[in-house]
Amino acid sequence: MAKRYGHSLVARAGLEGMTQALRKLVRDHRQGATMLNYLMASSIAMYGTDADGRITFYNNAAAELWGRQPELGTDLWCGSWRLFHADGQPMKRDECPLARMLRGGSPPTGERLVAQRPNGTKVNFESLPDMVRDDAGKVVGAINVLIDVADRIAIEGADARLAAIVASSDDAIISKMLDGTVTSWNSAATRILGYEAEEMIGQSIRKIIPTDLQGEEDEILRRLKQGEHIRHFETVRVAKSGKHVDLSITVSPIRDKVGRLVGASKVARDITERKQADLNAARLAAIVETSDDAVISKGLDGIVESWNASATRIFGYQAEEMIGQSITKLIPPELQDEETEILAKLGRGERIDHYDTVRVAKDGTRLAVSLTISPIHDAKGRVVGASKIARDVSERKQHENLQRMLFDELNHRVKNTLATIQSLARQPLRTAASPSQFVDSFIGRIQALARAHDILVEQKLSGNERRGTRQKPSRTWRQGDANHFSGAQRDRGGPFCGAAWACAA
């Protein structure tokens, strides 16, 4: 097999001497066995033809490249079994570089071809043909050197793939020399930091380092010289706009063929959004942890995933007692169906606001709570769980019940008061001699009733209504009017009977 060198390297490897020997062999087949053996033993594939293109000589390396042994004096132009252009299109033998040259073309330089062997394998090679002339300058034949470029193509392919990766990467990829001079700058570096490649290549990398962080570059270089790789180093760099950008940087040493450190490659990932997300998450965590309300998250299966301090205070369970347990642990037996309904609504993406219900604390206490439940979505918008905020409204419920009782009592008392006033109006109407006497008597009774109410409030319904009322009799009340109240009326009872009797007494 031919040594895998490029054309210029082949020349430096002594190809010129071999081609001169091959020219002599083509010009004069009577050349000695020594020269023939020299060419046959070469690891560089080569062959020669006469002026008509018939192959007159080939060495072992050429036969190995072709995968066959062409017939001398018969096979034309090339010894390949089949021949293809570099793009895979078939090539006729008389279209090969040597044939075109012998037909009057200039010698091609380094044209790439593909030879297919009889066993089906293919080899990429470069064809380097040249004319052979006699002493008079007449073309008497041609020689062709075939360079196997499989390794070169593999390297070029790897380089191309690497270049494509670097160009299409979302991360900034930068290379620099040991003095900090930038030698490469990809498109992501432009997007993240704002500088075009031509603005940074040849400039110092310190151009993007904040003044107070310049020492980082010295430390990075020191660690690289010690053979270290620097991974995921979080820092800040300055964009062209002056904006500070949060980056995670990975730095690797670049070494030459003998292992000397000659530079560094940097991969910088923009973590500004992640930093902001971390900050938002920290703020949210602080809000959740200090909330007076129980804040709980759960999966769609009802399993508790988070449990804040207020949930512990309200329900009595520590976080480790509830995380991994079903939320139904808090729900009374007769309300278990609530969770099924809640999960169904969440699955439809619905939010549940201020839903008043009852939950059971660790000690068995039933708590009145107001629930607000929101679905949790993943990055694709799918509902994957729920967040639940539970507010203990037991005190509010007690106040509501007390208020309801007071309103009921007020309603009852107002109705009794109106009934008493109605009764008070009837008595002077029956006995009054004139309208003015009726007015005086009725007003006196109303005033006495008002004073009776004041005494009831002052003594907090202590049972001293009669005594307190009798201490301040109405000046307009006539003793004879009391005879108009029957004993049954005085003893009827009710919250205002004492007050009514006071007016009559």
Outline, from the CA principal axes?
A: rod-shaped
> Taking Cα atoms only, what radius of gyration do you get, to the nearest Å?
53 Å
Going by helix content, strand content and strand pairing, the class is alpha+beta
Strand order of the largest sheet: 2-1-6-5-4-3
Number of strands: 16
Instruction: Enumerate the spans where pLDDT stays under 50 for 5 or more consecutive residues.
Output: 1-15, 463-505
- Major β-sheet annotation: 6 strands, antiparallel
Mean pLDDT: 80
How many H/I helices? 17
Helix content: 40-55%
Oligomer: single chain
Strand content: 15-25%
Distance between the termini: 138 Å
Summarize the structure.
Helices cover 40% and strands 25% of the residues. The chain is α+β, with helices and mostly antiparallel strands. The protein is rod-shaped and about 170 Å long.
Task: Write a structural description.
The protein is α+β, with helices and mostly antiparallel strands and 505 residues long. It contains 17 helices and 16 strands. The protein has a six-stranded antiparallel β-sheet with strand order 2-1-6-5-4-3. A five-stranded antiparallel β-sheet has the order 8-7-11-10-9, sandwiched between helices. Strands 13-12-16-15-14 form a five-stranded antiparallel β-sheet, with helices on both faces. A hairpin with a 4-residue loop joins β1 and β2. The longest helix has 38 residues. It is rod-shaped and about 170 Å long. The N terminus and C terminus are likely disordered.
